[in-house]
Amino acid sequence: MDAVVLLGAPGSGKGTQTGKLCDDFGFHRVSTGDIIRAEIRDGTLLGKSFAQYQATGMLVPDDTVCEMVFSNLSRIDGRGLVFDGFPRTLLQAHRLERFFVERDLRGFIFLFDVTFENIENRIVNRVSCPGCNSVFNSRVDGVEIGAACPRCGTRIAVRQDDTIEVLRHRYDIFRREVDPILEFYGDKVHVIAGNRPADDVYLDITEQMNLSALDSRNS
Ligand code: AMP
Hints:
CATH architecture: 3-Layer(aba) Sandwich
CATH superfamily: P-loop containing nucleotide triphosphate hydrolases
Shape: globular
CATH topology: Rossmann fold
Bound molecules: adenosine monophosphate
Number of helices: 9
Order of helices and strands: EHEHHHEHEHEEHHEH
């Protein structure tokens, strides 16, 4: 089974590409940000402890995130897994690698290369669906806050942490944490120019993985 790891700054396109891989090829989505937001929304005990991290852009402690990720992965079947927003620290990368070895997973590691200016633009216009976790650009996709999600009908919202101030903080944290992760993965990392239309980025990913339209579950 394949496992895809998407590394990149906030707003670099990880969520969008994850959605495409899941829709087209039946990958199972492992998005730590989505899991964390769901806990906060549901008001669970864990969610209450996450709220401050999420609001300020700080990372949730490694042990908690790893426990959340791996406890949900015991019964995974299907075409494979896409990790969106995990790992975010070297320790998380080590834990994930151990999981890949134990499960005999073939890992594809992608880094979306974008500048701060690229993501600033995207975050300012980013809206998302709290129901199905789809992400839209309000200017490009014409999806406005409060409108019904084109995919599931839930009311479209803006993430609390999608402000320039919090973005700066999240970006600094990303820059600080990513280098050791890249060093750890070494030449397994495929660097993808991220500041392009989503379909072009997607083509690069599927080509690198040798996925073709013929493999698609919709074909
Ligand atoms: P995201 O939706 O991936 O941008 O994540 C939103 C927020 O959730 C982050 O700013 C962190 O507070 C938290 N978070 C998501 N993934 C992780 C992770 N792998 N490790 C620690 N915190 C995380």
